[in-house]
């Protein structure tokens, strides 16, 4: 079965790694079995001098010399058929490899080798297996002139850069998966930095549930949190607004129907104060989903008028319940980003421009910090942002390039349709399915791909799979790989820190890589960990400050900037976190400003100067 080493000859092609007096040093074994996808190589555990070496290791690539071509294989299993080790003589081993493709030398002298995923000539019995040359290894991962960025080095040979095609990675969506603590967030920060350097026109919106990315991108990022977010309630669609009113519980169809009827009337009153409740029909008709301002006071007034009608006698409990929900939401401090504006004005241009950085003023990244926000608020806001991102890219006719990055993506796109928020799932699915046509890209980061909606995951064409211990999660990633390198994923449970297996459209072939090491100050969450170091002796916990944050009752603030440049030295909740409020003239106490009524314009249409 095994071929004697003495009768084996070296390659016919020149090999730059070996000297003339050691022309057989790179010979590792000979092919003894081959099928359409895999081959078995007979070899010895010791080298020619009798010393045991690590030439055969799982995960390494080797080449099989066929004269004009060299077949490339990946080692996925090593063993001795008799399961016994002898200290006398050489120990014969069997090496199982997975065939990946073949390398051909260029036609011109000195030309680079060319790699092809397909195999035209399969190895014959007795074909000689070698350690792969550095030039051949570079050819395997060559991107053939595509716009690329370097994100690390190959795990097999750290002298070779690991490159990805940035345009294909972004345009066809990507996913980063891995268990907790393997470096997902650091990899995301690295990819964002490289992407912004390669694509200065790219805008990025990060859904950050742990408030950790802003400090890792201080020169590129502005952060928006629940205190600085200004997303008026009238920009929400009906189902998103209902999610806020019903606090994540199942909606009451009768109350939603009332909202569907009365919101257009309130919008018409804002636009035409003298028209009453008459609704126009035609191309410019208003619906409950049209992003046009209206006042909560007008909506409540419409409910009161309907309750006073004689034919609405049976609907009064429903109307009264709906009115209570609206007033409760408007008074809830957690929803201040929706109802905090005392003057209802058409600020959609300012809101969208600040969130999606148009213009970006040198800071193209918006980090939306969601820690501490209620789940129903997070669901609605993520739905609004995802919908606006797609619409903005669509109507910009390709001029706006936007990356929508979802950290902990299984929160918004769970596999179970009974969980999560359906509008958020639909908005993100729309980006995944159609976004690349209009310049809206999706980035998915999750530690549980098994809990993620498979429709979303199937639309991601490039994967960065880091260490995964769960069998279900490993099976999901295995089913996503399309080429013949499925055995590479056998290493998912044992990879080290910063290591990942990249496969898909963004790489030439399946690649095991090690991400570049970021500086300590750019690692997500570093600033937060430094602030939570063990307290010194005598430095007790400030319970009063904790309770104040727990109650989530903000102090009165007259003016809050929408988005602020990142200052890593200050965090939300610090006494000097906010800039001093600008002086403002207080109105008379006789006017009620809770629902957006302005004394000088009450009942009148807004006039432009």
Task: Please describe what this structure looks like.
The protein has 609 residues and is an alpha/beta fold. The chain is 26% helix and 19% strand. It has helices at 134-140, 166-171, 184-198, 238-245, 253-271, 296-308, 316-331, 336-339, 348-355, 375-395, 422-434, 454-458, 471-480, 526-531, 543-551, and strands spanning 27-34, 38-44, 61-65, 69-79, 92-104, 114-116, 128-131, 148-154, 161-165, 174-177, 202-208, 221-224, 365-369, 401-407, 440-446, 462-465, 499-504, 511-515, 564-565. It has a twelve-stranded mixed β-sheet with strand order 9-8-18-17-16-10-15-14-11-13-12-19. A six-stranded antiparallel barrel has the order 1-2-5-4-3-7. A hairpin with a 6-residue loop joins strand 17 (499-504) and strand 18. Helix 6 (296-308) packs antiparallel against helix 7 and helix 10 packs parallel to helix 11 (422-434). Mean pLDDT is 78; it is low at 1-24, 556-560, 568-575 and 577-609.
Helix content: 25-40%
Q: How would the global form be characterised? A: elongated
* Unreliable sequence segments: 1-24, 556-560, 568-575, 577-609
Fraction of residues in β-strands:
15-25%
How many beta strands in the DSSP annotation? 19
Distance between the termini: 92 Å
Radius of gyration: 31 Å
Structural class: alpha/beta
The total count of helices amounts to: 15
Query: Quick one: biggest sheet?
Result: 12 strands, mixed
**Which strands sit side by side, in order, in the main sheet?**
9-8-18-17-16-10-15-14-11-13-12-19
């Amino acid at each position: 079965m095994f071929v004697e080493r003495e009768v084996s000859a070296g390659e016919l092609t020149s090999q730059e790694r070996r000297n003339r007096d050691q022309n057989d040093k790179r010979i590792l074994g000979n092919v003894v079995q081959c099928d359409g996808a895999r081959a078995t190589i007979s070899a010895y555990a010791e080298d020619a001098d009798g010393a045991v070496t690590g030439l055969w290791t799982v995960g390494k690539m080797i080449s099989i010399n066929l004269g004009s071509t060299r077949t490339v294989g990946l080692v996925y299993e090593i063993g001795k058929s008799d399961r016994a080790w002898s200290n006398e003589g050489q120990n014969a081993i069997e090496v199982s490899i997975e065939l990946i493709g073949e390398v051909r030398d260029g036609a011109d002298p000195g030309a680079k080798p060319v790699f092809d995923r397909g195999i035209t000539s399969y190895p014959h019995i007795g074909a000689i297996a070698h350690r792969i040359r550095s030039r051949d290894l570079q050819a395997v991962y060559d991107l053939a002139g595509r716009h690329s960025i370097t994100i690390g080095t190959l795990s097999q040979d750290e002298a070779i850069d690991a490159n990805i095609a940035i345009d294909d990675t972004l345009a066809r969506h990507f996913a980063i998966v891995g268990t907790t603590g393997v470096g997902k967030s650091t990899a995301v920060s690295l990819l964002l930095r490289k992407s912004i350097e390669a694509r200065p026109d790219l805008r990025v919106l990060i859904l950050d549930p742990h408030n950790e990315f802003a400090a890792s991108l201080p020169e590129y990022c502005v952060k928006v949190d629940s205190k600085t977010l200004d997303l008026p309630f009238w920009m929400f669609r009906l189902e998103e607004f209902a999610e806020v009113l019903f606090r994540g519980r199942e909606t009451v169809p009768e109350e939603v129907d009332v909202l569907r009827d009365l919101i257009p009337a309130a919008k018409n009153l804002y636009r035409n104060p003298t028209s009453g409740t008459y609704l126009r029909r035609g191309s410019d008709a208003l619906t409950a989903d049209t992003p046009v301002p209206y006042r909560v006071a007008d909506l409540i007034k419409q409910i009161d008028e309907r309750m006073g009608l004689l034919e609405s006698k049976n609907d009064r409990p429903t109307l009264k319940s709906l009115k209570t929900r609206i007033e409760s939401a408007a008074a809830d401090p957690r929803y201040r980003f929706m109802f905090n504006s005392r003057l209802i004005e058409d600020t959609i241009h300012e809101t969208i421009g600040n969130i999606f950085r148009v213009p970006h003023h040198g800071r193209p990244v918006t980090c939306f910090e969601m820690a501490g926000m209620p789940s129903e608020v997070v669901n609605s806001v993520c739905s609004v942002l995802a919908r606006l991102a797609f619409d903005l890219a669509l109507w910009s006719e390709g001029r706006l390039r936007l990356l929508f990055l979802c950290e902990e993506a299984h929160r918004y796109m769970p596999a179970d349709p009974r969980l999560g928020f359906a509008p958020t799932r639909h908005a993100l699915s729309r980006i995944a399915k159609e976004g690349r046509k209009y310049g809206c890209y999706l980035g998915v980061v999750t530690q549980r791909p098994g809990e993620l909606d498979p429709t979303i995951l199937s639309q991601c064409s490039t994967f960065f799979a880091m260490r995964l211990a769960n069998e279900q999660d490993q099976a999901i990633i295995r089913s996503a790989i399309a080429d013949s390198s499925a055995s590479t994923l056998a290493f998912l449970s044992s990879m080290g820190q910063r290591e990942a297996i990249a496969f898909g459209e963004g790489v030439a072939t399946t690649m095991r890589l090690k991400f570049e090491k970021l500086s300590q100050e750019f690692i997500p969450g570093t600033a937060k960990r430094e602030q939570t170091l063990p307290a010194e002796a005598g430095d007790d916990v400030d319970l009063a400050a904790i309770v104040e944050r727990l109650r989530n009752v903000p102090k009165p603030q007259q003016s809050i900037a929408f988005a602020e440049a990142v200052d890593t030295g200050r965090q939300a909740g610090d006494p000097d976190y906010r800039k001093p409020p600008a002086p403002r003239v207080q109105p008379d106490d006789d006017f009620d400003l809770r629902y957006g009524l302005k004394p000088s314009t009450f009942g009148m249409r807004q006039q432009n100067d």
